[in-house]
Amino acid sequence: MKTIAIIDDDIPIGDMLEEVLKKENFHVLRAYSGTEALYLFSMHRPDLILLDLMLPGLSGEKVLEKISGIPVIILSAKVDVQDKVHTLLSGAADYLTKPFHIQELLARITVQLRNYPASNLSAIFTVGDLKLDCTSHEVAVNSTPVRLTKTEYAILKLLMQHPKQAMAKSVILDRISADTPDCTDSSLKQHISNLRRKLRDISGKDYIESVWGIGFKLSEGTKS
To answer: What CATH number is given for 124-223 in this structure?
Structure first.
């Protein structure tokens, strides 16, 4: 079941969207402010995000800057062409102005969920001196190859898809479970420790940071 996050402080619109999406067999997550959205993403990784721009506190534009690796459809009352152009160039996958027809939104959701995985089959992720090639499954630091286990590779790939985003341990385990069923809550910390050491032995930098109370995140590397 695909998961869609609705980030909108307009409760009636959010309730309507949640009802429709659940009838379409989607799992739905909700957040009502920008800050709440970032906390939600630290605990869960949706397959698609519906994001309003005019949120209390942290704006939708600021939230969009923190999202990577997930298609985002903007739902906004802003109709100015420049707002649309700026948001799309900033990383949004699509933009729909309010009010909108629900059938059109469902069609756009279907297109994004259908197209997004295909666009990432041969992706190359780069964060600082780190490079990961999804086609060859090769990882390098400063062009020096790094030999990783299957579990270490899966963890690093996931973190590189979401650089600088804190990810809960439960989310990491859920996202890599299909490829690494041997990784458990008790062994995850050891796998990450081994991964850290291998990257540090080549670069002298720590790329994976522990985020107290949440989990882990990837950075561009700090001298150890």
So the answer is: 1.10.10.10
